[in-house]
Amino acid sequence: MGEDYRGMWRDLGLDLAAHDVLLGVLGNAYRDIFLSQKNRPEGMAYFDFVMSEVHGLRIRELLDEKKSGRKIIGSYCVFVPEEIVLAANASLVGLCSGADFAMEEVERLLPRNTCPLIKSSFGFKLGRVCPYLESADMVVGENTCDGKKKAYETLGGLVGNLHVMDLPQVKSVQGRALLKAEYERFRAAAEKLTGVPVTAETLKKAIKTVNAKRAAIHCLSSLRRADPAPISGLDALLANQVFFYDNPARFTDSVNGICDELERRIAEKKGAFPGKTPRILLSGCPQAVPNWKLPFLVETSGAVIVGEESCVGERGTRNLTDDSGETVEEMMEAIVDRYFQVDCAIFTPNPDRLGHIREMAAACGADGVIHYGLQFCQPYLMESIPVETALEKEGIPTLRIETDYGMEDAGQLKTRIQAFIEQLR
Ligand code: SF4
Ligand code: SF4
User: Fold this and answer.
1) Residues sharing a CB contact under 8 Å with residue 191, sequence separation 6 or more, in sequence order
2) Which residues are near ligand 2 (CB < 6 Å)?
3) 14, 91, 163, 393: which has the fewest C-beta neighbours closer than 10 Å?
4) Any long-range contacts for 162-167 (C-beta under 8 Å, 24+ apart)?
5) CATH code: domain of residue 409
6) If you take atom 3 of ligand 2, which residue's CA is the nearest one?
7) Pocket perturbation via mutation, ligand 2, pick of 95, 114, 146, 148 by most ligand atoms within 8 A of CB
8) 162 and 271: one domain?
9) In a shared domain, residues 122 and 30
10) Centre of ligand 1 from the C-alpha of residue 140, in Å
11) Do residues 400 and 259 both lie within one domain?
């Protein structure tokens, strides 16, 4: 970390000793997993810098923005519309939830058989190790799966300003109406927090900013279709993870810069892995920072990941918001339309997701799909069985993985992944 940020962390109320442990683990994992890769695009130096300053410079920037009156809103889900947040003069930050922390304390509040993502969100709060969470003026919880819904009842007692957003579970007219009403309620809450009303002008600008960020990621995704793949799945995942907390305009410029470089690499047939390396589409639960376990195991077993059908990936960034509206009402409708297409497994039935996996597998030239389910995640684990059956029937080899954030099963997973890759060859 470039500067001594300890005073800033202390002021935020972090547990400095526990935070040192977290940064140590994170730094070592990053070095072993990311910096040890060969043939990385030079543009990844930006993301290496972002990660080295993840609890430093970015937090200082956000706190400086706060001094000038801007607010910070934290989110756990891609259903929280960044367009509304930006238009109300706030910044949206993703709250990672990708590592186990303070598990003993967590299991005093949540059952042991709760998904690792939910447990992690509690662990970061109870362990006082997340400067994003501690800087947030509002945290948004969303009624998605049952685990999250019930967990927010308890989290409300731990964080200062929790806004619980109800979400539909069915893609019906009534479901859309509920989403619309909840986005209006969220807009009012964001305006109340910042004291800044959303106007047609600010909302249009915000839609364009978020669309630009998504378009840059779309560009990156399409370049990954080349063989040899010009960037590793790990590096592409990192860009998708940084999407959630970097300054939006700077993020867009950096990803566009990497895309220019990838185009040159493709022309020169320069890959992160040799041509004809087996190609994998990863599909399933979100992979929040610093959850890099599965892509690391896959890409050190002789395959390359060429797409993520995931909220930290294409499920989260897939569609743009129509920016042609002229009034706040018209643009709010466009925002609802855009987010109502997200095919999260909390919806029932959820046929769009299978269609999307098929579409992605074909577009990325994937030789096989690995379905990634977090332990105790009922929505995705339940869906993984019909997804596997349907894909196998169509001749797309599929491997179902169920795992957590621990490394205890790494050896066993690696053996299964290697056997699957052998089968693809
Ligand atoms: S998987 Fe569903 S609940 Fe989880 S972040 Fe994505 S949309 Fe939200
Ligand atoms: S991974 Fe599954 S169980 Fe966990 S929060 Fe997301 S949808 Fe819920």
Assistant:
1) 88, 197, 198
2) 115, 117-118, 144-145, 147-148, 285, 374, 377, 379-380
3) 393
4) 162/138, 163/138, 163/139, 163/189, 164/140, 165/79, 165/80, 165/140, 165/141, 166/142, 167/79, 167/142, 167/143, 167/346
5) 3.40.50.11900
6) 377
7) 148
8) no
9) yes
10) 13
11) yes
Domain count across the chain: 2
**Ligand 2, atom 8: nearest CA belongs to which residue?**
145
The ligand 2 atom at the shortest distance from the C-alpha of residue 377 is 3
Residues 6+ apart with CB under 8 A from 13: 128, 134
Kindly report, residue by residue over 5-40, the tens digit of the pLDDT.
999 999 999 999 999 999 999 999 999 999 999 999
Give the per-residue pLDDT at 96: 81
259 and 366 fall within a common domain? yes
Whether 370 maps to a domain, the answer reads: yes
Q: Looking at 111-172, list the stretches that DSSP marks H as alpha helix, in order from N- to C-terminal side.
A: 116-126, 131-135, 146-155
In a domain, 326, yes or no: no
Among the bound ligands, the one closest to the CA of 145: 2
- Ligand 2 center–CA 156 separation, angstroms: 18
Q: Is the pLDDT of residue 3 over 90?
A: no
Does 349 share its domain with 237?
yes
150, 183, 216 - which closes a domain:
183
Residues 401, 291, single domain; the answer is: yes
Q: Find the domain containing 147 and state its range.
A: 6-183
Q: Whose CA is nearest to atom 6 of ligand 1?
A: 311
Q: CB under 6 Å to ligand 1: residues?
A: 77-79, 144, 286, 311, 342, 344, 346
Q: Which atom of ligand 1 is nearest to the CA of 315?
A: 6
**Looking at residues 222-248, what average pLDDT do you find?**
97
Nearest-atom index, ligand 1, CA of 286: 1
Residue 288 belongs to a domain: yes
Residue 281 corresponds to which tokens in the numbers above?
A: 């589409």
User: Which ligand lies nearest the alpha carbon of 310?
Assistant: 1
- Asked if the structure places residue 362 within a domain, the reply is yes
Q: Tokens in use for 334?
A: 């466009």
Which residue minimizes the CA distance to atom 5 of ligand 1? 77
The whole-number pLDDT of residue 1 equals 63
Q: Are 417 and 305 in contact (CB under 8 A)?
A: no
pTM of this structure: 0.96
Please compute the mean of the pLDDT values over residues 362-380 and round it to a whole number.
97
* Ligand 1 atom 2: residue of nearest CA: 344
- C-alpha to C-alpha distance for 24 and 267, rounded to whole angstroms: 39
Tokens of 351: 């046929």
Tell me the average pLDDT across 372-382: 97
Find out whether 370 and 418 touch, Cβ atoms under 8 Å.
no
